[in-house]
C-alpha cells in the first residue's frame, strides 16, 4: 500500500520495543559518555533512562526518585564534583569493526553466467565502491542487529547503479515469512521548535513512493507537496499521481535486509536480527566501572605532601602563602620537641597504593566474558595465549574457532542478500542505463578467512610428491585454490617445460624426457 495519508504517531507504536534497543545499542556503538548517561538515566536532572532497572522499587522507605540504580552509567555525578570522571572502554565499537573485518576484509567473489555480465558486474562493484560498503554494512549490522542495503541511481553523477547503507533504525520494515516485503525509510529534513518535517520513502515490489509530512516530534502530521522543501523537490519531477515511480526491478524490492544473527532473544518471533551486544550490556557497564576505578587509583596515588604551617612563606596580605620544595634551610622553632621528635616540624607524605594487578585481572576477565558472550575469541582482538611462540595457520584457526563459527553463521545471512544485490544491480543497470546485460543472481564464493601457512603447505606438497600420491595439477590446485582452469593449465605447462630433461646422447633418445606424471597431467 502507498504512504500514509492521515496523521498518525511516528515512529509507529509497534516499533517502540526495537527502537528502544536501537537507542541502547547505538549508544554503546557510538561510545559517547553523554549518550550512555542519557540512555541509563544518569544525568544530573532526575529522570528515567531507556532501561529503568528497578525504578519502581523504593529503598530505605524513599520514593522511586531515591532508587539505587543497577547501572554504572546510571549513577549521577556528585554535585561537589565539577566534572565527570567516568571512563568508557570502546569495546563495543571494536566488536563491530572486528565482525566486519572477519566477513569482508577479504571480500567474497560474485560470479554470473556470461563474460559480458561478469565484466559489467565487476565494473559496478569496483567503481561504486561496493566492497567498502560491505564493510560499513557489516559493522552497522553487528551493532544494531541488522542493516539495509538500498540500490539507487544518479544519472547526472554516475553511469552505473549505486548502493547505500542504512542502519536498522532508519526504516520500518514489513516481513512476510521472514522475508522483507516492504520498508518505509524516514528522515527529519527540518526541525523548528515543535514543528518537524519528515521525508518518507516507501519501497514495494517494483515501486518506490516519496512523501513529505509536516508534523511534530511524536506525530507524522499532514502530507504536503514534495516541492515545499529543497530536500525533496527533486523527487517531485519523477513521481506520478500516486506519489511513486517504477523501480525497474519487478522481481522484488530495491532494498535488501541482512539480519546480524537470529533468533532475537528479546523480541521473540520477530524477523529482525539481534545485536552482538545483546546480553553483554551489563558486563560492558562493569568494564567501564573497572577502568574508572583504576584511573581513580592513579589520581589518588599521586604523591602529596602535607606541610606544617610554619613552612609556608607569606606572599603578602591577601595573597596567601606558598611552599618552596627546593629550599634547604628553615629557622627552628622555640618550643619543646614532641616525644621522640627532633624539635623541627615534620613533613607528612601521603601516597595511596595503586592496585594495578587487581584492576588488570578484573578488566581482562570482563573483556573475555564480553567477547565470549558476543561470539568471538579473544585472539581475534589481538590478545595472545601468553605462550610467546609463533603459531601456524591451523593453530591460529583453532584458537579463533569461536570467531570463525560466528563468521560462518553470519555468512548464512549475507549470502542470499549478496545474490539478490547482484540481480538488482544488473536489473537497474539495464532499465536505467540501457545496458544489454542479463539480470541474474550470482553465485557467492567466500574465502577461507585465514591465510594458510606457506611452510605447512610446502611440506604437504613435498610429501605428496615423494609418495607419488597426487598429480602435478592436483598439487598446483592445492597451492593456488583461487586459480581458474586456464591459470592451472598454464602453470602445469610451465612446470613441464622446466622439469623436462634433454638427454645428452641423441643416439640413445632423440626426444625430450618428460616424467609420466607430468605427461598425464598435461
Describe the protein's architecture and organization.
This protein has 522 residues and is an alpha+beta fold. Among the domains are: 297 residues, no CATH class; 68 residues, no CATH class. It contains 13 helices and 15 strands. The strands form five sheets. Strands 4, 5, 6, 7, 8 and 9 form a six-stranded antiparallel beta sheet that branches. The chain has a three-stranded antiparallel beta sheet with strand order 3-2-10. A two-stranded antiparallel ribbon has the order 1-15. A hairpin with a 2-residue loop joins strand 4 and strand 5.
Shape: flat
> How far is the first residue's CA from the last residue's CA?
62 Å
Regions with pLDDT < 50 over 5+ consecutive residues?
A: 44-68, 501-513
Mean pLDDT: 82
Tell me the fraction of residues in β-strands, as a range: 15-25%
Helix content: 25-40%
Let me know the largest β-sheet: 6 strands, antiparallel
Number of strands: 15
Topology order in helix (H) and strand (E) letters: HHHEHHEEEEEEEEEHEEEEHHHEHHHH
Radius of gyration computed on alpha carbons: 33 Å
User: DSSP helix count?
Assistant: 13
The structural class is: alpha+beta
Amino acid at each position: 500500500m502507498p504512504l500514509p495519508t492521515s496523521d498518525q504517531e511516528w515512529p509507529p507504536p509497534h516499533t517502540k520495543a526495537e527502537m528502544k534497543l536501537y537507542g541502547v545499542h547505538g549508544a554503546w556503538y557510538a561510545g559517547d559518555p553523554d549518550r550512555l548517561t542519557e540512555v541509563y538515566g544518569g544525568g544530573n536532572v532526575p529522570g528515567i533512562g531507556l532501561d529503568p532497572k528497578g525504578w519502581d522499587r523504593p529503598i530505605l522507605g524513599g520514593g522511586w526518585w531515591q532508587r539505587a540504580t543497577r547501572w554504572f552509567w546510571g549513577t549521577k555525578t556528585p554535585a561537589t564534583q565539577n566534572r565527570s570522571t567516568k571512563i568508557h572502554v570502546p569495546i563495543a565499537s571494536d566488536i563491530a569493526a572486528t565482525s566486519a573485518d572477519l566477513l569482508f576484509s577479504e571480500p567474497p567473489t560474485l560470479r554470473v553466467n556470461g563474460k559480458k555480465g561478469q565484466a559489467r558486474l565487476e565494473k559496478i562493484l569496483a567503481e561504486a565502491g561496493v566492497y567498502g560498503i560491505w564493510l560499513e554494512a557489516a559493522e552497522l549490522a553487528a551493532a544494531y542487529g541488522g542493516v539495509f542495503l538500498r540500490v539507487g541511481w544518479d544519472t547526472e553523477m554516475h553511469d552505473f547503479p549505486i548502493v547505500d547503507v542504512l542502519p536498522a533504525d532508519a526504516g520500518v520494515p514489513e516481513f512476510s515469512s521472514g522475508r522483507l516485503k516492504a520498508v518505509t525509510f524516514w528522515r527529519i529534513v527540518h526541525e523548528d521548535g515543535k514543528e518537524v518535517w519528515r521525508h518518507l520513502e516507501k519501497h514495494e515490489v517494483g515501486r518506490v513512493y516519496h512523501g513529505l509530512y509536516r508534523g511534530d516530534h511524536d506525530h507524522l502530521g499532514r502530507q504536503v507537496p514534495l516541492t515545499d522543501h529543497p530536500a525533496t523537490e527533486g523527487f517531485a519531477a519523477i513521481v506520478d499521481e500516486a506519489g511513486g515511480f517504477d523501480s525497474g526491478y519487478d522481481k522484488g524490492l530495491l532494498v535488501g535486509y541482512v539480519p546480524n544473527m537470529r533468533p532475537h532473544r528479546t523480541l521473540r518471533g520477530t524477523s529482525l536480527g539481534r545485536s552482538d551486544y545483546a546480553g553483554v550490556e551489563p558486563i560492558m557497564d562493569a568494564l567501564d566501572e573497572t577502568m574508572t576505578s583504576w584511573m581513580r587509583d592513579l589520581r589518588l596515588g599521586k604523591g602529596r605532601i602535607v606541610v606544617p604551617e610554619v613552612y609556608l612563606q607569606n606572599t603578602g596580605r591577601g595573597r596567601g602563602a606558598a611552599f618552596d620544595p627546593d629550599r634547604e634551610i628553615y629557622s627552628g622553632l622555640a618550643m619543646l620537641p614532641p616525644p621522640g621528635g627532633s624539635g623541627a616540624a615534620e613533613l607528612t607524605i601521603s601516597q595511596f597504593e595503586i592496585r594495578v594487578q587487581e584492576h588488570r585481572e578484573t578488566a581482562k576477565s570482563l573483556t573475555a566474558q564480553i567477547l565470549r558472550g558476543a561470539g568471538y575469541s579473544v585472539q581475534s582482538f589481538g590478545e595472545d595465549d601468553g605462550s610467546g611462540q609463533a603459531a601456524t595457520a591451523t593453530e591460529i584457526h583453532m584458537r579463533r574457532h569461536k570467531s570463525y563459527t560466528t563468521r560462518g553463521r553470519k555468512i548464512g545471512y549475507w549470502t542470499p542478500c549478496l545474490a539478490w544485490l547482484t540481480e538488482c544491480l544488473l536489473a537497474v543497470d539495464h532499465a536505467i542505463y540501457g545496458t544489454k546485460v542479463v539480470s541474474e543472481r550470482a553465485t557467492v564464493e567466500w574465502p577461507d578467512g585465514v591465510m594458510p601457512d606457506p611452510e605447512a603447505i610446502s611440506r604437504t606438497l613435498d610429501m605428496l610428491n615423494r609418495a607419488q600420491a597426487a598429480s602435478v595439477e592436483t598439487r598446483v590446485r592445492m597451492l593456488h585454490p583461487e586459480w581458474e582452469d586456464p591459470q592451472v593449465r598454464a602453470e602445469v605447462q610451465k612446470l613441464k617445460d622446466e622439469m623436462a630433461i634433454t638427454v645428452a646422447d641423441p643416439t640413445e633418445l632423440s626426444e625430450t624426457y618428460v616424467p609420466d606424471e607430468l605427461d598425464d597431467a598435461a
